[in-house]
Write a structure and sequence with these properties.
two-stranded antiparallel sheet, single chain, mainly alpha, globular, 67% helix
């Protein structure tokens, strides 16, 4: 494994571990601190894809998935105020969302890699982030999927409230998902700056980075 690929794996592992820790701490009514670190996983994937190619990017994704599984297992062993920090349903949601969204990100980026430098990272991150949000919050909290873990009461997430406190009435988990999605979209745009800088630094090329 090349030094660059090792750095990619370590960076992805750091993002996953940090996000699994920070998701335990609330930020306002709709978010956790993990919402601000997790989107960096897409930056790591896209940089690896640009510099080392899609095959290397998929290896980094799989490494991140393995670290995420380990974090989930550890979380199931830690008992908090309301039970295990990570339930089986959350673990399934987290792992599925990460793996599917990141692999789709790699696919979209690779299809657009020959275009303008910003198009591939922006489009792939927007698609991947949106898919990640839909998969995670639906699998983790939708009432129709309680069969995944019948003993885990997530009825609190189905409480009907105004969307983000101001919109039409919707289940609480929908507001949580929309808030998370907005953060991901915002960071997808902001991340273009470090993506451009790091890609040029790592490749020494400016054209079509």
């Amino acid at each position: 494994m090349s030094r660059g690929l090792i750095l990619g794996v370590l960076a992805m592992a750091a993002v996953v571990v940090a996000s699994n820790i920070l998701v335990q701490f609330l930020f306002g009514n709709w978010l956790t601190w993990g919402a601000f670190t997790y989107p960096l996983a897409f930056l790591v994937t896209d940089l690896t894809n640009r510099v080392y190619g899609a095959k290397a990017a998929r290896k980094v994704v799989l490494a991140g998935f393995a670290v995420g599984i380990l974090c989930s297992f550890i979380g199931t062993q830690i008992i908090g105020e309301f039970g295990p920090l990570v339930t089986l349903r959350i673990a399934i949601a987290s792992g599925t969302a990460f793996l599917v969204a990141q692999l789709v990100d790699v696919f979209v980026f690779n299809r657009l890699r020959e275009g303008a430098w910003w198009r591939a990272p922006l489009a792939s991150t927007l698609v991947g982030s949106s898919l990640d949000t839909v998969l995670f919050f639906t699998i983790a909290f939708a009432g129709s999927l309680t069969f995944l873990e019948p003993s885990n009461d997530v009825s609190w997430a189905g409480e009907m409230l105004p969307l983000l406190g101001v919109g039409p009435v919707a289940p609480l988990w929908v507001s949580l998902g929309v808030a998370d999605w907005f953060v991901k979209l915002s960071l997808a745009v902001i991340a273009l700056i470090p993506f451009r800088y790091l890609a040029v630094m790592l490749t020494g090329k400016k054209a079509n980075i």
